[in-house]
Specification:
Helix content is about 30%, strand content about 30%. It is α+β, with helices and mostly antiparallel strands and about 130 residues long. Strand 4 and strand 5 form a beta hairpin.
Length: about 130
Amino acid sequence: MPSGTCRVGACRFVLSVVIAGGALSACDPAAWAAVRICQPEVSSGLQVADTELEARRLAISAWVAAAGAYGKPYTSWRLALSKFYSCAEGEDGKVRCLARARPCVISQVPSPKTRERLPDRVDGVRS
């Protein structure tokens, strides 16, 4: 193969890498970066039910309600950090469950005004 030429497949690959690199460098990095912003731990309090499934559902629902004190965006158990729940059956045959976690939201890079209000973060998570 003469110098300065390449196979069609290789040239297409190189061209796509160059185009993609150019497209990424043209984007504002703030537009595609996200951070997780978390609040202090919230507890469901002890929830009691006849079955473990029911007690667990009650505990998660109570956690969601308590996390709502930080605003509706913080009510997602799925996004919460440091999730913990535990269930145990009591002598009366009832099941007691407790759920704890730090309520979080996923946000695009915060505006400078928001960043000033946030305490120091480690790996994008408020401490």
